[in-house]
Amino acid sequence: MAASHEQYLQKLAGPRLIEAKPHPSLRMVVVIPCHDEPDLIGALKHLANCEPSLGQAEMIVVINDSEKDGSAVTRQNKYTLCETTEWLDERRDPWLPIHLLYHPKLPPKQAGVGQARKIGMDEALRRLADVGQAEDGLLVCYDADCRCSPNYFTGIESHFDSEPDAPGCSIHFEHPLDASEWAALGFGDTAPGQAVFDGIAAYELHLRYHVLAQKFIGFPYAFHTIGSAMAVRAWAYVKQGGMNRRQAGEDFYFLQKISWIGQVTELTEVTVHPSPRLSDRVPFGTGKAIGDYVANGRLTTYPLQSYRDAQWLLGQVEALWETGRPSIAPPEAMARFLRDDFVGTVVPEIRSNSGDFGAFLKRFFRWFNAFRLMKFLNFARDEIHGPAEAEDAAIKLLEWLEQPRQDSGSAVELLRQFRHLQKGN
Q1: Euclidean distance between CA atoms 215 and 201, whole angstroms
Q2: For residue 368, is pLDDT > 70?
Q3: What gap in Å lies between CA 294 and CA 285, rounded to an integer?
Q4: 189 shares its domain with 335
Q5: Which pLDDT tens digit goes with each residue over 51-81?
Q6: Domain housing 48
Q7: What is the pTM of this model?
């Protein structure tokens, strides 16, 4: 494993960026990308007030912008850098070291949240390697507009201690749903309008509906992929080639790749609270969804029937291994999605490279992975079933799960119920 991380740092990471030596007991590094963020200090203060972990932790903040960013972003980043540097100089008894990295004018083709996370995570790996933690050291992702529960560090630490084989975890998250929750979490005096809170409730409901539906049909990669709420072991980071440079969706692609080498666990004892806000920075994700909701007053999701169609395929795995063909005809959406290539080419190739059913199962789900499931859900929605209102789809899923439903049927009430379900409450 030592050769692997050394090779990664040599070939895939940039030069050393932090000269200060890491604490000998360093075990966890939290990486925060920061692009046009007005309240970085608020996020850092909140983290610094958390319960200290047993092993040493530290934070790396990557303040970044692109050559294509306007002057307003550049000014905000420079102000954030100066303001945060002054605050760090005045800190007293800092149990949590915080390192600021400034990367202005990144090339547009590479600039974005993926590149910023990669810069910070590569440097975090280097620092963990300096103290012999290149295998079990923890790389944690957070965002500059978040708050968290007081047990953030201790909860992550104890979770990985109790899950020694887990390559990574998805951390429970909850957006504030009104101005009072916003204020209670310490986000500041000026809360967004109610339409923004309504939009984030609908969007988070969509996210939880999507994951819970996957779990119910038995899909093995059913977990949230939220960039501000995920953590991986250093060895897994190296083995899967580090963070990607995607300008959007970097969290989805990264954590799914981690899941191919072991079960990504779900940490529900810790909560990250991302900030709801409008954004047109990327073509999809939280900011885009809220903007669409504010503009249209609604948010759609994948219809439940699409997951039922996917469930058909999951139920055919044993028959595909034994005979090379499904035992019953597929639903229309799946038949059109798979086409003749599936039985004619895909299944024979997987069978010929599998010595037993366990090997076939592993190879099959490397093929029908989260990326392909997402493609199918988009296809089934766009070509066959049409979109569904988030609230309507959530109610139908609760009925399918034989769970009681809230009388109001509002996004907020449904969301609170889904949160409890996913936390196991």
Answers
A1: 21
A2: yes
A3: 14
A4: no
A5: 999 999 999 999 999 999 999 999 999 999 9
A6: 2-299
A7: 0.93
User: How high is the pLDDT of residue 295?
Assistant: 65
Q: For the chain, first and last CA: distance in Å?
A: 39
66 and 132 together in one domain: yes
pLDDT confidence of 284, banded at 50, 70, 90? very low
The token pair that represents 302 in the structure block:
């994948």
DSSP letter string over 322-357? Answer: HHSS-SSPPPHHHHHHHHHHIIIIIHHHHHHT-SSH
Residues 131 and 222 reside in one and the same domain: yes
Six-digit token string for 294: 């504010």
Last residue of a domain, one of 266, 299, 332: 299
Best CA proximity match to 395, nearest among 419, 416, 414, 422: 414
Query: Which amino acid does the sequence have at 65?
Result: D
Q: Which CA distances in Å does 90 have to 32, 93, 360?
A: 21, 10, 59
Q: What per-residue confidence (pLDDT) applies to 409?
A: 78
Judgement on whether residues 270 and 348 belong to the same structural domain of the protein: no
345 and 392 housed in the same domain: yes
Please, which pLDDT band fits residue 1 given cuts at 50, 70 and 90?
very low
Instruction: Quote the CA–CA distance of 419 and 81 in Å, as a whole number.
Output: 36
Q: In this predicted structure, what is the pLDDT of residue 174? A: 98
Is 275 in the same domain as 356?
no
| One domain, residues 273 and 365 | no
What is the DSSP pairing of strand 168-173 with strand 230-233? antiparallel
Cα distance between residue 318 and residue 326, in whole Å: 9
pLDDT at 283 over 50: no
Q: Which two tokens stand for residue 76?
A: 């905000």
- Together in a domain, 277 and 365: no
Strand pairing class (98-106; 168-173): unpaired
Q: How far apart are the C-alpha atoms of 167 and 46, rounded to whole Å?
A: 27
pLDDT at 274 over 90: yes
